[in-house]
Amino acid sequence: MVRQNSDPNKLHSVLVFIRRTLGKLNNCGQDYASLGLTAPLVELLRSKVEQICLDAAWALTNLAAGSHDAVPQMRAMKAHHHLLALLATGNDAVKEQALWVLGNIVGDSAEARDEMVGTELVERLAEIISAKTAKLTLLQVACWVISGVLKGRPFFDRVKGLVERMGNLLYIADQDVIADTLWGLAFFTDEPKDSIKLVRKSVSITMIVEFLKHENLLIKRAALRLSGNICVGDNDDVDDVIKAGCLPELIKILNTCEQREALKETCWVLSNVAACSEPQVDQLIAAKAIKALVSVCRSKFDLYIKREAVWALANACMAGTARQVQRLVDKKVLEAMLETINVLDPQAELTLLQAIDHVLASGSTTGITNNIAAMFDLIGGRARLEQLQAHANPQIYKTAVAILEKYYKMDESQLTLSLAQSEDSDSIMPAENARPMAMEDAQSP
What we know:
Distance between the termini: 39 Å
Largest sheet: none
Helix content: 55-70%
Shape: elongated
């Protein structure tokens, strides 16, 4: 039995045995919360002996890492009160171990995270990252906890002071600190309202773009996510990201990187830039970003990556003028779209069709003959649209029929069949080509 009034030396030996055993059981995939260890370990967090507090927190960390039930048990016992008290000690090793447990509680569920955000944990974290003499290992754990706290769009006012102090962490020459700081800021800007302005006051966009060059993929991906979220802001935000040299780095990633998530997120950032306005489309063309995206669509990459690339091209087409659209057509954008048509999910398919409609409409303004519509027919575009008349999704085949009616003379029997299908289905308006927002958290590490 583990008791507070046991001999400290013996108790230390017992706790070391417990946490080492728990660590070994973790590797065996066993859930051992039912062993009844949680309550006595939580009680030992109140010990006046710092070594015992450290040992108990370490054992609780291993317990939380290997059991689905451990964190709910800790929350029910209000373990966080004792852990937060340990953060007020002058012992960095004790603080570090207490943070490991708190980080496991934060990461257990959205409910647990929100509960912790409502405690003094946020203030304690701000103090730790602001301290000039904090140990590196303590900062590493603190940044990991912060990334969990900021995940899931926490209350803005509650974490504002913490975010304002995070910029200096990016000057620390440690990859774990940098990666977790960038991910925390990326999670925070998943909800663009007000968060982008706050992050921009704390962190230089030039520095964020510099991290796109980093060899560490976690850092590179976090910088990609943060850059993309900033590009969901206003035109000035997008312009500043471009001025910081973002486009050449994104193109380099597309041309040299083989990591699936990084490639997808790179296309997503370019998609947000493309959805902005006409000047940004010109800059994408000048930087050869369109050429790189077309290459992705026509490459061996899987549909997971191609979906983001073709969406970026679709956004560029929708945001572009007739002059810009003609330049995009010259760069084989329509051929790239045909690589993915009829194999995408319904939302992406509709966006692609709306972009094709916009491109064909631009052709009709260049003269008596719609040269773009004629070229699209020659490369097999019209035939692909006709195939979509048999699509199971009513929105998709209605949109395809509308494009065919608008730009091509359909055979009367084809038109009658398509109209009959439309009348038999619920009336559904094509979805707007909404600007891509922040990526889902599921893609984060």
